[in-house]
Amino acid sequence: MNKVLILNGPNLNLLGERQPDIYPAPSLEDLNKELAGLAAELDLEPEFIQCNGEKEMVEALQNCRKRVSFVVLNPGAFTHYSYAIRDAIEAISVPVIEVHISNIFAREDFRSKSVVAPVCKGTIAGLGKESYRLALIAGKDLFAS
Amino acid sequence: MNKVLILNGPNLNLLGERQPDIYPAPSLEDLNKELAGLAAELDLEPEFIQCNGEKEMVEALQNCRKRVSFVVLNPGAFTHYSYAIRDAIEAISVPVIEVHISNIFAREDFRSKSVVAPVCKGTIAGLGKESYRLALIAGKDLFAS
Amino acid sequence: MNKVLILNGPNLNLLGERQPDIYPAPSLEDLNKELAGLAAELDLEPEFIQCNGEKEMVEALQNCRKRVSFVVLNPGAFTHYSYAIRDAIEAISVPVIEVHISNIFAREDFRSKSVVAPVCKGTIAGLGKESYRLALIAGKDLFAS
Amino acid sequence: MNKVLILNGPNLNLLGERQPDIYPAPSLEDLNKELAGLAAELDLEPEFIQCNGEKEMVEALQNCRKRVSFVVLNPGAFTHYSYAIRDAIEAISVPVIEVHISNIFAREDFRSKSVVAPVCKGTIAGLGKESYRLALIAGKDLFAS
Amino acid sequence: MNKVLILNGPNLNLLGERQPDIYPAPSLEDLNKELAGLAAELDLEPEFIQCNGEKEMVEALQNCRKRVSFVVLNPGAFTHYSYAIRDAIEAISVPVIEVHISNIFAREDFRSKSVVAPVCKGTIAGLGKESYRLALIAGKDLFAS
Amino acid sequence: MNKVLILNGPNLNLLGERQPDIYPAPSLEDLNKELAGLAAELDLEPEFIQCNGEKEMVEALQNCRKRVSFVVLNPGAFTHYSYAIRDAIEAISVPVIEVHISNIFAREDFRSKSVVAPVCKGTIAGLGKESYRLALIAGKDLFAS
Amino acid sequence: MNKVLILNGPNLNLLGERQPDIYPAPSLEDLNKELAGLAAELDLEPEFIQCNGEKEMVEALQNCRKRVSFVVLNPGAFTHYSYAIRDAIEAISVPVIEVHISNIFAREDFRSKSVVAPVCKGTIAGLGKESYRLALIAGKDLFAS
Amino acid sequence: MNKVLILNGPNLNLLGERQPDIYPAPSLEDLNKELAGLAAELDLEPEFIQCNGEKEMVEALQNCRKRVSFVVLNPGAFTHYSYAIRDAIEAISVPVIEVHISNIFAREDFRSKSVVAPVCKGTIAGLGKESYRLALIAGKDLFAS
Amino acid sequence: MNKVLILNGPNLNLLGERQPDIYPAPSLEDLNKELAGLAAELDLEPEFIQCNGEKEMVEALQNCRKRVSFVVLNPGAFTHYSYAIRDAIEAISVPVIEVHISNIFAREDFRSKSVVAPVCKGTIAGLGKESYRLALIAGKDLFAS
Amino acid sequence: MNKVLILNGPNLNLLGERQPDIYPAPSLEDLNKELAGLAAELDLEPEFIQCNGEKEMVEALQNCRKRVSFVVLNPGAFTHYSYAIRDAIEAISVPVIEVHISNIFAREDFRSKSVVAPVCKGTIAGLGKESYRLALIAGKDLFAS
Amino acid sequence: MNKVLILNGPNLNLLGERQPDIYPAPSLEDLNKELAGLAAELDLEPEFIQCNGEKEMVEALQNCRKRVSFVVLNPGAFTHYSYAIRDAIEAISVPVIEVHISNIFAREDFRSKSVVAPVCKGTIAGLGKESYRLALIAGKDLFAS
Amino acid sequence: MNKVLILNGPNLNLLGERQPDIYPAPSLEDLNKELAGLAAELDLEPEFIQCNGEKEMVEALQNCRKRVSFVVLNPGAFTHYSYAIRDAIEAISVPVIEVHISNIFAREDFRSKSVVAPVCKGTIAGLGKESYRLALIAGKDLFAS
Question: Which fold would CATH assign to domain A2-70+84-107+119-143?
């Protein structure tokens, strides 16, 4: 199975428009296009979902569980309090790699704690759009067959 | 009025599939079937809702408020942070019994705090599917007419 | 631009029915009618949204960003934990005034902390329906053109 | 083995006399009579012990360990600090169900933490004398043979 | 009775001179002049006191208790520790509206806690001189006769 | 009723022998003799109990509840953790005055918190044997008939 | 020397008028009259000061240091934060007895901590005007010559 | 004087039966037999007490104070909250060596804090029955004459 | 401008009399005389103010703002809680050097936190009267023209 | 400049030997060989340093500052307390990517806090030797010229 | 294997010179001589290392791992923060016994927490040089062959 | 003895190069040259040591103990966690004055706590290179003979 779900959380649809000093990435559409290119190179079949809702994220995780090799997850603000997403990650057997565009450890206090990190395989933070690229590469190496 | 709402929160739709050491219960469908049987014995008319979303839980609570004698509520991960569900319980006059399949006091730290417990009538935790059965019996004895 | 969004969070649809000692305001419908009258006097064009869901609030904030001069926001229970709503406020350039009907500093401990306050322009709490009225007046003075 | 120990902690001998708004139950004698009736229905042989002392509770737990199928335990105020009782529960192989008459999560802060809950099978709180009734039913279903 | 006390705490006499990025308001004299104008429109008789001392604030509150309909109070730095002022507010039967020029929730940690807020009727913060204007309007609507 | 219970907790039987710099009082026997004299002057009938056990203290409080006008209580180390004694005080209708020989606020950190103080009528600490004498006088004035 | 200073802090001038459920004492004037009578009986020469200001309390303590045998001090709200008063007590050699009319341990959290208690000889709280009476008696016994 | 008290706290009578992974020691009886042998070698006269009650431990400590050279104390669960035992140790002049079979710093959080350690001469933990043997040797070297 | 304000807080007027082990300095008068001598050597024109009141300190800071090159400030106990003094320092453009006679980091816990330090230019503590001398020298070097 | 420093902290020299369940990586030598291969592919010139000492790490960071384009840093246990290493990272202008073999957020509490993360460009954790590989790739993309 | 490493941390080279009230032991040289004698009696071959550096301690632990049966470790101040030493202990399979000369639980707060204790076999504290002697005896009994 | 050790900790060798906004001082070499000049004026014989290692700092402190009158110590980042340096200061009888170039109370939270301050004679912070100059002057006045 060589499918991967790239799942983005709330407000990431505004990427490129919102706080350009913190999120200098291109728009989400452009980012996804770039990631689709990289996925193709890696022989991965990507699926892109962005949701502003916790329920939608929980269900995206549940639904992918028989379909994908791994998930690249940027939970946005849900990183810091959504135990429902944490439980969804734990409930499925699919490996999840947590990514963040900005360095969450260098911003407001509340951002330095991720409630999903303990149930993810790994975390990549602070490297801009490169965070996603690395997650695809790692997932390919470690979890895709 | 002898109606009861049995309301389950996020990820409980995966019951039986997810972490069998912690949740050894049967599937949610089987559990509900069994509870329907017990409800019939108790002369209760059960309604079953499972939702992965906070909004859906808030509205299930709001909507039942003129229709049921009591609610059996397993808020799943929302137990630990959903003040919106807490407010919904406080806002309706229907008694709510909080149930948990696992012993939430014997797991990760964050699970030992329930933000809804203070506004529920009571809490039953750790007894597997029996937690739900007891809640039906208690609700019948205390709140159903 | 003289449009304003009046955005109410979870359980505020039960206003007037719920806990009358804390929320002695009229029903939400009546409140909105009254606010519509005031808006007219202030030459503002009001839009009213109430949602029980976090996603709906995030998207209401995102969607209004090119349409309104300011937002009057009562996040209800989300006040205390929704970093997703906080991020939405930060992501848009529209000024937001936070309002609360009750004095959130005089109730349960968890209510005295607002996670959205640091990114709002200001906060008005404890003055019943007057809190909304003042927010309209302030928004007119400060943000509407 | 169908024996059950119903073990009540300090000040529960004053039940019915003490703080009737919090403990509206009948006297302990009446409660025990009622529970004895239910036990008979459930084909259980109950033993009733109330003690005001920690040592007496520790030893009641130790002594019952070869004699009963399960214990229904209301540790009273010891709930919140008696690690000696906790150790006694851990030391014996008999399953213990923790019960509370009042909703301990809705009272003073110190009452919301139970140091014995992590080593009990489950917890039932807030349902008045029904808490004990449910514990008997659950114990019968789960632990009695 | 249509009198109102507008009571400003320590260092507010330096308004306009001090930290113009945080306090862009005009001088206190100019502000008071503007508020006097608004008060006249609202048919309120304003009294203005600014004190740098806690004793002076306590006594201003005590002394106004038989004379004014409500108080508009900006306690300055006392907001964060003066339980003496809190007790004075509690001791008098006059309603008090707390105001702040800056958004106290978006500055240093210590500023996000107000020890007087729980005994005030309401709080208005972050809206510059408009905070005072709104307090006058609210007081007129709610507390003046 | 003019009876009073003077109830001393663990290790107070060693008074006069133990840490003379902190407890410069005479022996407990001598102290009790002196208090008996004062009681006689006040027309009070004193009863003296010292126990090293929590159970004994709980039961002394329970048992006196129909017999005495008030209790003078020095809980010794139990002051800092015995919620069982706290519950006993709350359960009886007899007023209790807490006394301490030493200034518990000027010693180790753990001694500065009394878990029984909130349910006692008052607290007298730091005045040596005078603490007991004052408690007798106060009890006579306030609670004895 | 048989002089005693009875020093009352902020808002105690409103005694009898303020929150009668918490402070059922008579007016300060009446209380002082009663205490003057008791002082006479005890052969003490009382001096009465009430101040709403911290500076006034610090200086009253400093100034009495060569004139009185002991001080009866009710610091009012300053109890909870005035390290300046604490330092004044430490700086003088006169023994100070802290008194409180209400049971400060049974009210809001912030009231349960006294920053002056560690440097006072003793503390008497919760016994209404009797708290003062006891302090006079204790001071006479322990510190007056 | 060459007497030594070996004092064991609650649930240690179950040694060998309880949690063999944590407490792999032999039964208490066997342990005591072995320690008696070592004591004889060291020319010490041992006395063995095990109690499940705090009162019994306090009194064992008090009573031994004129009879033994030192105490080997395993307070069991009381280690973590019994300030009454702490006070008893402080009140007697006999040196006390605290011992623990298991490594209390490597288990649940609450076990890593000993309230008696600050008043004991020393602490020996984690070395199984060897902990007791070492305490006898140390006591012989340091405290026995 | 070569003027300097040497501003001392509450209880420093008792210097030399109070706690000689902590404050071995001479009397304030003598200290000031010595500092006047040093100031003369440094070609500085000193002004000495000591106040026991917070208001007086706030106003001394405000008033000196157009007159002095720098302030040497020992806030006494206000160091630990006076946000009003902190705000005054921030409000004026005059540099302030905080000084302490004793080592505030080696005394009671509450003394190790200074709420004014973050807005002062620097802090000098623990060096007795030398602390003031150094502050004069530093102010001369850094801030006087 | 295409040089990169791969800097490993204390105990990483034992890789492969130590706790194979947590660190299933090959030996450090083998890992470095593999990374050298990848570096070559990426046209990077790698330098490998492992040190067990904080000083050596600080100086390795200082010394590389004029020589390398970026640093791949696994600080080992220093992650959690070495502010000296943090300061060294801040002091040099070379970008640093923090890597961890294991998921530091899923282990002991103390490991979930990195004191260096706030001054690194990004963090990659939990992906075994892949963490290092990704860091090389990211550094090449972002920082190498 | 009968070798043992006796490893002392920073500042223990000053033993006998430094703070004689806390460390009344002889000089380190004398102590080591005495321990060498005891080791000979126990048929153990001792090796003595004292280092003031963390790196040296980490490497002493790493290097001994194939050579000794057990380690007697006094980490000195590193006890309280060196996670690098903790990791070294965990990384080697040699059992380590932690010793302290003084009672670390009876001194400053920071000393009561040992970050290495959870990975040592046991801890012996407070018994002066006897702490080392006991560790040798225990190691001989438990770990040497 | 008129020798003084000026001891600088990690990363201070980069002074002048590193973060010029925080450390506007000249290079360490230049600073030392300037201090040497001042020392000569003060008739002090200075010794300059800068080390990036904790061991080196501990040993510099130990080694100077028979040679210098006082130490001027800037521990750099070790300020915040090196209990080994603290112990070294306590172990020697030489007085130590702690200095900091920047105002450590106005930067990141972790910098506001110094673990060495309680054992130093005094602390001088925030005055740039002047901090060192003052320490030399103070040491000359107070500790040099």
Answer: Rossmann fold (3.40.50)
